[in-house]
Amino acid sequence: MRLVRHDTDLWSAEDELAWPLATIRIPIRMTVVRLADGRLVLHSPIPIDAALRIELDALGPVGFVVVPQMHGAFAAQAASHFPAAQLLAAPAASKARRTLPFAGSLADEPPAAWAGQIESHLVEGFRLHEVLLFQRATRTLVITDLCFNVHRSASTFGRWLFVADGMWRRFGPSYAIRWLAVSDRAAFRRSLERVLAWDFERIVPAHGDVIERGGRAALREAWRI
Q1: Which H or E run includes 17?
Q2: CB 125 within 8 A of CB 186
Q3: What pLDDT score does 94 carry?
Q4: Is 186 helix (H, G, I), strand (E, B) or coil?
Q5: Contact in structure between 165 and 20 (CB atoms under 8 Å)
Q6: DSSP calls for 19-39
Q7: Is residue 215's pLDDT more than 60?
Q8: Which domain holds residue 24?
Q9: Structural domain contains residue 64
């Protein structure tokens, strides 16, 4: 079984991706949220094989596929599997993948079907154009590359690289992202303060283990806000 249930109407599935060299694999996570109308939201799609497709179909129809800027490698496959789903992206992601049938960009105005269930926020002053999702009912924040929490790697060189970049067995941004991805520190801080006003407890990252408790404190400490 690929899907792991975290809470009511909240699941995720993990895979691995070659990063940044073919010999290094980094864990990647797809988050699945089920809306009140039964439709699924897939955030950051991973490769969907036959077994995972069966599991998703059992949960409900896929209504939305959210494609973060740096996580579009499997967006075309998701679009082909679920042609009725709306593809939504951070603003820069849709520009980078013009051949995909995006229904629009996702920033601070989520689709009407998400009203009262999932909120979204485009992080300002951040070159990765990351859009964070907040599932109200489960008090869960879904992130992409804002923070990592990698605890496992079969590659010795991979573990060395993750340690060197500050990503190994700790929740927080990599050193590269901390120093290179923030373009406007004042705007970035304002964005994080807005996110920290959300009442979340859990954080589901795209890379690494889920933070089940104390998410707000963990995010504040990770970026020293």
Answers
A1: strand 10-18
A2: yes
A3: 57
A4: helix
A5: no
A6: -SSTT-EEEEEEEEEE-TTS-
A7: yes
A8: 4-219
A9: yes
Give the span between the Cα atoms of 93 and 106, in whole angstroms: 10
Q: How many residues would you count in the chain?
A: 225
Between CA 120 and CA 132 the distance in angstroms is 5
Is the pLDDT at 98 greater than 80? The verdict is no
Q: Is 17 domain-assigned?
A: yes
Q: Which residue has the tokens 């795209």?
A: 206
Per-position b or e across 101-116, b if 16+ CB within 10 A of its CB: ebeebbeeebbeebee
Asked whether the beta carbons of 39 and 61 are under 8 A apart, the reply is yes
| Pairing label, strands 40-43, 62-67 | parallel
Please give the mean pLDDT across all residues of the chain.
Answer: 91
Q: Tell me the H-state helices in the chain.
A: 50-59, 75-81, 91-96, 156-164, 175-180, 185-196, 215-223
Cβ-in-10-Å burial (0-12, 13-18, 19+) of 139 comes to middle
Residue that the structure tokens 């995720």 belong to: 12
Which tens digits make up the pLDDT trace of 16-45?
Answer: 877 665 567 888 999 999 999 999 999 999
Give the CATH number of the domain where residue 75 resides: 3.60.15.10
Q: For residue 53, how many other CB atoms are within 10 A of its CB?
A: 14
Q: Is 73's pLDDT higher than 90?
A: no
* Assigned domain for 224 exists: no
